[in-house]
Amino acid sequence: MGKRGFFERPSGLTIAQIVSLTGAEARDATRPEHLIKDVAPLELAGPADLTFIDSNKYADDLATTRAGACLMPERFEGRAPDNLIVLRTSEPYRAFVAVHSALYPQSLRPASLFEGNDIAPGATIHPTARLESEVTVDPGVVIGPRAQIGAGTIIAANAVIGPNVSIGRDCVIGAGASIMHALIGDRVVIHPGCRIGQDGFGYITGAKPLKVPQTGRVIIQNDVEIGAATTIDRGGIRDTVIGEASKIDNQCQIGHNVVLGRYCIVVAQSGLSGSVTLEDYAALGGSVGLAPHVTIGRGAQVAARSGVMNDVPAGEIWGGYPAKPRKQWMRQEAALARLIAAGGKAAGPAKPSEGS
């Protein structure tokens, strides 16, 4: 089977257009019309490809690359092959992403898997649901009573939209997602398999666990993106809120009453227990676990695979299990490494004396 691409082949950008787009400076100004048709890593790039370098780790690949042009900081210019068009920039990866986005704009927002632009046969839409103009609904979709869908939104195949759910304009709801008890803003992207608005996990323990009612909502503000197979529980007696432009990775669990501020980042497989708060710009690494009612302060960061049992102050970086401030965590890790290197062992129980 031949190589098959899943995105339209770009028409390309000239070096002059890339310079204009990124603000990079071309070391060789004699080839402004050289056409770049694609992007590729250093070791795979060809004469019509753009690549980048921002780490010494890839310096050997730079010396042998066949790329047409490369974005790089000034310190790498001396290692570049003579035929390579060098584009000098202090932020090569950011510039590379700008070019990649311009070449493949369709990759930034999921499209209808059925390649439709209307309501497909096989969709089930309740008569009381309200859909604005230019809404795309793929086969197998179910839209419940009194749901509202804004203009330009795409509902992919087999998604389920529950009663009274409101979804704003220019959103994408991925294939197989289910959304209930939720109000969703504009330009929100929800990837396939997400579960949003189901009841949270709340029980009073005892001989017979007593289920706690969950009667809140999920509020998802504008420009949020939620990764595949992530679950977001509705609130108990207050709302679960995902703040403006926050980004949640795949396979995360957001418990009931959780509040994310604006521009938060939650990386894959993280679990946020009930009533957790992330203030604006907070970030969680992969597989972080947060205990109930913990607050992660504004701009704070938690390292991957950490377990957070206490509030993290604004702007601090914590890590470990249980998580602690970075300097303390690093000192403890270093002390443990020294102990292991020295062959030290934790003291065991004292041996009984003779005759005891």
* Mean pLDDT score: 94
Give the radius of gyration: 26 Å
Assign the CATH superfamily of one domain: MurE/MurF, N-terminal domain
Structural class: alpha/beta
CATH top-level class of one domain: Alpha Beta
Largest β-sheet summary = 11 strands, mixed
Q: Helicity, in percent?
A: 10-25%
Instruction: Give the count of helical stretches.
Output: 4
CATH architecture of one domain: 3-Layer(aba) Sandwich
Q: List the uncertain runs.
A: none
Question: Explain this structure to me?
Answer:
With 356 residues, the protein is an alpha/beta fold. It has a domain at 13-108: Udp-n-acetylmuramoylalanyl-d-glutamate--2,6- Diaminopimelate Ligase, Chain: A, domain 1 (3-Layer(aba) Sandwich). Helix content is 12%, strand content 25%. It has four helices and 39 strands. Strands 10-13-16-19-24-27-30-33-36-38-39 form an eleven-stranded mixed β-sheet. Strands 8-11-14-17-20-25-28-31-34-37 form a ten-stranded parallel β-sheet, with no helix packed on it. A hairpin with a 5-residue loop joins strand 21 (203-204) and strand 22. 35% of the residues are buried. Keywords: Acyltransferase, Lipid A biosynthesis, Lipid biosynthesis, Lipid metabolism, Repeat, Transferase. Belongs to the transferase hexapeptide repeat family. LpxD subfamily. Homotrimer. Catalyzes the N-acylation of UDP-3-O-acylglucosamine using 3-hydroxyacyl-ACP as the acyl donor. Is involved in the biosynthesis of lipid A, a phosphorylated glycolipid that anchors the lipopolysaccharide to the outer membrane of the cell. InterPro entries: Hexapep, Hexapep_transf_CS, LpxD, Trimer_LpxA-like_sf, UDP_GlcNAc_AcTrfase_non-rep.
